[in-house]
Amino acid sequence: MRQNLPELLLYACGVYNLLFVVFHALFWRLFKWHKQLRKLKTYNRAIVQILNLRLIYVLGVFGALCLAYPAELLSASLGHFILGSMAVFWLGRLIEQFVFLPINTRPVYSLALIFFLGTLLHAFPLLLSLLHAS
């Protein structure tokens, strides 16, 4: 079971990332972007939506990699780099939560906890893989 734990964690990572794909795809509706983004200049409105679409793509790739290539992520140097990059992505998102959204509300703290979970979820399989290789 212990040898399968890193792969199981990677499957959880895949689902985690794909859930964020769905969440980001719902931003137009959840945050009423059809109304709210009208307040921005055209280029800012475009940048917000383009960045969200690119984030959806990146999170989809993260999810697909974790679900389709767990053995490669755990055994190859490139896989370790990619998995480590995913962990740093979620750690960065956690830090940015407090830098750019310093609001003391339950949803903000709930998201921070979710981003912390994402960091751990992506870091543990890598650490377990590196420990197993030693």
| First-residue to last-residue Cα separation | 19 Å
Q: Total number of helical segments?
A: 7
**What does the radius of gyration come to?**
17 Å
Total individual domains: 1
Task: State the assembly state of the protein chains.
Answer: single chain
Mean pLDDT over the residues: 95
Largest sheet: none
Low-pLDDT runs: none
Give the overall shape: elongated
For the secondary structure, the number of strands is 0
Structural class: mainly alpha
Order of helices and strands: HHHHHHH
Proportion of helical residues: over 70%
Strand content: under 5%
Mind explaining what this structure looks like?
This protein has one domain (5-133). The protein is built from seven helices and no strands. The protein is elongated. The relative contact order is 0.15. With 134 residues, it is mainly alpha-helical. Helix 1 (5-25) packs antiparallel against helix 4, helix 1 runs antiparallel to helix 7 (106-133) and helix 6 (77-100) packs antiparallel against helix 7. The chain crosses the membrane at residues 6-31, 51-71, 77-95, 107-131. Keywords: Membrane, Transmembrane, Transmembrane helix.
Short précis:
The chain crosses the membrane at residues 6-31, 51-71, 77-95, 107-131. Helices cover 85% and strands 0% of the residues.
Task: Tag the structure with descriptive keywords.
134 residues; mainly alpha; 85% helix; elongated
What's the topology here?
Elements: H1 5-25, H2 27-30, H3 33-36, H4 42-68, H5 70-75, H6 77-100, H7 106-133
